[in-house]
Amino acid sequence: MDLRTVAYGPRPDQLLDIRTARPAREEPVLVYFHGGGLAGGSRRDAAGVLDALAGAGVTVAAPDYRLYPQARYPQYLTDAAEAIAWTRAAFPGHRLLVGGSSAGAYLAMMLCFDARWLAEADVAVAEVAGWVFDAGQPTTHFAVLRERGIDPRRVLVDEAAPLFHVGTQSRLAPALIVLAADDVPGRREQTEVLLATLRAYGLDALVRTEVLAGYQHSSYLDDAAPQGQSQFAALVLELIGGLGRTG
Predict the structure, then answer these.
(1) What is the C-alpha separation between 132 and 124, in angstroms, rounded?
(2) What CATH number is attached to the domain comprising 191?
(3) pLDDT of residue 245
(4) Is the Cβ–Cβ distance between 11 and 22 less than 8 Å?
(5) Could you report the per-residue pLDDT of 119-136, keeping only the tens digit for each?
(6) What are the CA-CA distances from residue 93 to residues 26, 45, 96 (Å)?
(7) What is the per-residue pLDDT for 67?
(8) How many domains does the chain have?
């Protein structure tokens, strides 16, 4: 596996790590956004699972993005969209997947369901072949609520919520949703509302949901399965393996 760090934009904090299999192959490219409540974390997070994906032949781009409180909504979204645009241009002809964990999954869901953010970066949502949403918040993110001076425990659905934008599209590419059985309070219930809304709009046909027993919020990321591969990585590889059959 090769690992290198590149700039995806002009600011010094617009960096992403690229993991590629050796020798490089024309395999799918996954843009993976780290978690951390939009206020912490870095592109170095979840190194074990990203290494496992790269070792299995997937090119992985893991970007940094601006964080609260230095950043405000929607600056982290525009960073995420720019990272995807850079990756698409750097790997022409490769199938593109987008995903993330926790806050990173919130970013991925916003880019999936609200097409304007990718459009502003000259990327069409339809160019994304698959999505990975690991324990993301489908309602307005608690960090966004905090920015507004609202109790972050509130459950709101407005334009800053992925759920708000479900139904504005006619098609959803294959998507994997992963949760822990003992996830953060309300996350499973909020995800059930997301799934029900997708069903109401007929967008659920290619959505797979996995609830992993024995884990807390995203704690399975670097936990190895008996064959030496993380469960999360195995699920992502199954999603990728099915792309040829669904698209």
Answers:
(1) 17
(2) 3.40.50.1820
(3) 54
(4) no
(5) 999 999 999 999 999 999
(6) 8, 27, 9
(7) 98
(8) 1
